[in-house]
TrEMBL record:
Keyword Transferase: yes
Source organism of this protein record: Micromonospora zingiberis
Protein's UniProt keywords contain Disulfide bond: no
Keywords of this entry: Transferase
Domain of life: Bacteria
Lineage: Bacteria, Bacillati, Actinomycetota, Actinomycetes, Micromonosporales
Protein name: N-acetyltransferase
PANTHER family, alphabetized: GNAT FAMILY ACETYLTRANSFERASE, N-ACETYLTRANSFERASE DOMAIN-CONTAINING PROTEIN
MF GO annotations: acyltransferase activity, transferring groups other than amino-acyl groups
SUPFAM superfamilies: Acyl-CoA N-acyltransferases (Nat)
Domain N-acetyltransferase: 7-197
Length: 217
């Protein structure tokens, strides 16, 4: 990995939307989850742009979005200090507009992720993306370290889902532990649930016990 010297991390704003949506769509375009959600790469590019446009604007409005000075990376965090209800009817309608015929798998994915989301107060890393031409330079790790320092000051853990082994190894190196996996049905890929606990005298707090919640979009 070629390290980039101390990339400048800053809060993202609406003026960053165009470049950051493109980074998200390109960074997530390849991989087992993408292949499962939308097998056709051309359709995937169109749907992913709409999906990540929605995700970025939602993050700017309801979460905390960080980027770099050159807009080549983005992290979308959500404080989850208590269980967050979802307007299932509104989300279903949004996914049908965004994904069209591919909406059922997006609904299934979001339903599965929500069902296994920990209830313990934490910050949730919904998305971390780096421009594919700038990957393996430590930019993603720098974005994470920026927010991890704040979480340690607040005494809060972090939670995320990794959709491939490469990302899982990165998160393990950065202090996360792996919890029980999620196996998506209909020959879907495995999702690795990851937890970065709060510091203790013996290390960090372990992955919390999670009781699956039943929800239907």
């Amino acid at each position: 990995m070629t390290l980039t010297n101390n990339p400048v991390v800053r809060p993202a704003t609406e003026t960053d939307a165009g470049p950051l949506i493109a980074v998200l769509a390109e960074a997530f375009h390849e991989g087992p989850l993408a292949d499962w959600l939308i097998p056709d790469p051309t359709d995937r590019r169109t749907v992913y742009y709409r999906y990540f446009r929605d995700a970025l604007h939602h993050g700017l409005k309801h979460g905390q979005v960080h980027t770099t000075a050159d807009q080549t990376a983005v992290a979308i965090w959500y404080p989850r200090l208590e269980p967050t209800p979802t307007d299932t009817r509104e989300r279903l309608e949004a996914l049908e507009r965004i994904a069209g015929p591919y909406a059922p798998k997006f609904v299934l994915l979001e339903e599965m992720l929500d069902a296994f989301h920990p209830d313990e107060p934490h910050h949730y890393l919904a998305y971390l993306a780096v421009d594919p031409t700038r990957q393996n330079r430590g930019i993603g790790a720098a974005l994470l370290a920026h927010h991890h320092r704040r979480l340690d000051d607040l005494g809060l853990p972090a939670y995320l889902e990794a959709s491939n082994m490469r990302n899982r190894r990165l998160y393990l190196r950065l202090g996360y532990t792996a919890g029980p996996t999620i196996a998506l049905p209909t020959e879907g890929p495995v999702i690795w649930r990851m937890w970065r606990g709060t510091p203790t005298s013996g290390g960090r707090t372990p992955f919390p016990h999670t009781r699956p919640r039943r929800r239907s979009l």
